[in-house]
Write a structure and sequence with these properties.
- This protein is mainly beta and 218 residues long.
- It has one domain: Jelly Rolls.
- Helices cover 12% and strands 48% of the residues.
- The protein has two helices and 15 strands.
- The strands form two sheets. Strands 1, 3, 4, 6, 11, 12, 13 and 15 form an eight-stranded antiparallel sheet that branches.
- A hairpin with a 2-residue loop joins strand 11 and strand 12.
- The N and C termini lie far apart (54 Å).
C-alpha cells in the first residue's frame, strides 16, 4: 500500500512540475503576440504612425494607413526599398505581411543601399511557388538556398503571414507561419553588418502591407 501511495505522490509531483514549467516557458517567437515581447532587447521598428527611423530609397510608394505600413508600385515601376537608419548584426526579426496584387517583395538584412542598388541578403517574400523564405544574395551569388517546394504551402496569399528571420554569426534561419523554411551557414553573411530593408520589386502592379515589425538584438 505504501508503495502505491508513493508512486501516486511521485506522479503527482511530476505533473505539477510540468504544469508549472508550461506556465513559465516562453512560447516560440513566431507564436508570441507583441504584448509578450517584454524583453528590453526587443524593439519595434515600425511605430504604426509614420516612417520615423526609416529612409525611402527610390520613387516607389511607402506610406502608413490605419496603422499599417504599405508599399505600392509607383509610376516608374522600378525597384524600391525602405531601409532602417540603424544597422544590425545578430538579431531575431519578426514581421507580419499581407500580399495584394502581385505581392513580390522581400526583407533584406545586413544590407547597404546606394540609390536603388542594394547589397546584402534577402529573405524572399513572393507569390506562391516563388521561394518565399529562401535567401538571395543581391549583386553577388544570387540564390544561396531555396526552401523545399513542399514548404511553400505555408504561405497564405492575400492573408496576413508571419515571418521570422534569425541571424547569429554566419547562421541564418527563416520561418513562415511557424514552418522552418531554410537554415544556412555562410561565412560571407557572418562577416557583414547592415540595415534591415523592405523591398518592392520592379515591374509595377505590386502592393504589400506590413505590420508588427519587431527585432531583438542578440
Amino acid at each position: 500500500m505504501k508503495n502505491i501511495l508513493s508512486c501516486f505522490l511521485v506522479l503527482f509531483l511530476l505533473i505539477s512540475c510540468k504544469q508549472e514549467e508550461n506556465k513559465t516557458q516562453t512560447p516560440p517567437f513566431e507564436e508570441q503576440s507583441r504584448t509578450d515581447l517584454k524583453d528590453p532587447k526587443t524593439q519595434s521598428l515600425f511605430n504604426g504612425k509614420d516612417l520615423d527611423g526609416w529612409t525611402i530609397y527610390g520613387t516607389e510608394k511607402w506610406y502608413v494607413e490605419n496603422g499599417i505600413l504599405i508599399c505600392e508600385s509607383g509610376p516608374d515601376k522600378e525597384y524600391g526599398y525602405l531601409g532602417t537608419n540603424k544597422k544590425f548584426k545578430d538579431f531575431d526579426l519578426f514581421v507580419e505581411f499581407k500580399q495584394e496584387a502581385d505581392g513580390n517583395s522581400g526583407i533584406f538584412f545586413r544590407s547597404s543601399i546606394e540609390g536603388t542598388k542594394i547589397s546584402g541578403w534577402q529573405a524572399e517574400v513572393a507569390p506562391p511557388g516563388s521561394n518565399s523564405g529562401g535567401i538571395y544574395e543581391s549583386y553577388g551569388r544570387g540564390w544561396l538556398i531555396k526552401p523545399d517546394p513542399e514548404k511553400d504551402k505555408a504561405l497564405k496569399m492575400g492573408e496576413w503571414n508571419k515571418m521570422r528571420i534569425k541571424a547569429v554569426g554566419d547562421n541564418v534561419t527563416t520561418w513562415l507561419n511557424g514552418q522552418e523554411m531554410i537554415n544556412i551557414t555562410d561565412e560571407k553573411i557572418g562577416a557583414a553588418v547592415g540595415q534591415i530593408a523592405l523591398q518592392i520589386h520592379d515591374g509595377g502592379g505590386i502592393k504589400v502591407k506590413w505590420k508588427n515589425i519587431d527585432i531583438k538584438e542578440l
